[in-house]
């Protein structure tokens, strides 16, 4: 059972911003290796590297973090987590860092929809407006036309946002029972097993430089997961989800500095609409909670 901590929107927000900084850096590494390694190979080495980094920490703690009574929730979290990772890295390789991060950050918009479908929660008028704004932003960014089939990076980024919404809800559920290290261990273990299955027949040799980048990527994954879990121990996903959009700023800066990516007007307008939709949905849920 995880220890109860005092809720703090400030601490939760800080941890979430740092988490998505690590996540954005991780996507930069993926873009560096896009022409060298397949998405499956990149994912497999990243998860295995992260698990190798975590195992000594678990061992020092005498493996007491391995006990859990909610393995099904871990499986849901692990399955959606590996799916979101694969989709996000593939999107980052096929489209710009900004587009991939904006579409990944549609999770606050998907959460009310998931609540409607699975929890039968009523969606009021303001939330429908928020969802509509976010959808309009996605359409502007993705620019759906006949060419989308030849470059599906934006659709993959949108799919990453959807499955990540499910993952984040599972993380909050796990915070009720398991410690951050317990959650990280099972997430990385499940991710390593699933990615091993996916990479069969697609193994590639990696050189020294690639190995160092992959080790750094594994470190980013460990940091992202730890900071994400810590953020949700201090605040609920819908309360601080707006700070997830900080990754769009990080992606724009890193994409401009490292990959010389340019921002067009459509991407800027779409980003603002997605952010507005997410913030509006978050503010409405928080308002209902406090009323």
Give the beta-strand count.
Answer: 0
Order of helices and strands: HHHHHHHHHHHH
Helical content (DSSP H or I, runs of 4+):
over 70%
User: How many DSSP H or I helices?
Assistant: 12
CA radius of gyration: 18 Å
Low-confidence stretches: none
The SS-based structural class is mainly alpha
| Count of separate structural domains | 1
What do you see in this structure?
The chain is an all-alpha fold and 291 residues long. The chain has one domain (9-290). Helix content is 76%, strand content 0%. Helix 1 runs parallel beside helix 11 (246-258), helix 2 (39-60) runs antiparallel to helix 8 and helix 4 (97-104) runs antiparallel to helix 11. It starts with 8 loop residues before the first helix and ends with a helix.
Structural key phrases:
291 residues; mainly alpha; 12 helices
Strand-helix topology:
Blueprint lengths: L8 H24 L6 H22 L10 H24 L2 H8 L2 H13 L5 H18 L10 H22 L5 H20 L8 H27 L2 H4 L5 H13 L6 H26 L1
Helix pairs in contact: 1-3, 1-9, 1-11, 2-8, 2-9, 3-4, 3-7, 3-8, 4-7, 4-11, 4-12, 5-7, 5-12, 6-12, 8-9
């Amino acid at each position: 059972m995880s220890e109860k901590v005092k809720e703090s929107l400030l601490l939760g927000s800080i941890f979430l911003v740092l988490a998505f900084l690590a996540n954005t850096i991780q996507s930069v590494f993926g873009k560096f290796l896009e022409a060298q390694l397949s998405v499956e190979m990149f994912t497999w080495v990243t998860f295995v590297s992260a698990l190798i980094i975590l195992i000594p920490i678990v061992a020092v703690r005498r493996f007491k973090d391995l006990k859990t009574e909610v393995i099904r929730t871990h499986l849901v979290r692990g399955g959606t987590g590996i799916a979101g990772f694969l989709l996000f890295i593939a999107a980052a390789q096929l489209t710009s860092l900004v587009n991939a991060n904006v579409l990944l950050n549609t999770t606050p918009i998907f959460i009310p929809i998931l609540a409607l479908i699975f929890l039968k929660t009523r969606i009021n008028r303001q939330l429908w407006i928020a969802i509509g704004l976010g959808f309009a932003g996605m359409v502007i960014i993705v620019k759906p036309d006949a060419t989308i089939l030849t470059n599906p990076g934006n659709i993959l980024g949108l799919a990453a946002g959807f499955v990540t919404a499910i993952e984040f809800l599972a993380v909050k559920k796990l915070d009720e029972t398991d410690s951050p290290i317990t959650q990280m261990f099972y997430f990385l273990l499940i991710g390593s097993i699933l990615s091993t299955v996916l990479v069969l027949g697609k193994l590639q040799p990696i050189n020294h430089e690639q190995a160092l980048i992959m080790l750094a990527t594994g470190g980013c994954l460990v940091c992202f997961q730890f900071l994400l879990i810590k953020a949700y121990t201090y605040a609920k996903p819908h309360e601080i989800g707006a700070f997830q959009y900080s990754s769009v700023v990080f992606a724009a800066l890193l994409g401009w500095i490292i990959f010389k990516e340019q921002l067009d007007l459509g991407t800027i307008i779409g980003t603002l609409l997605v952010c507005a939709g997410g913030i509006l949905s978050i503010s409405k849920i928080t308002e209902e909670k406090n009323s």
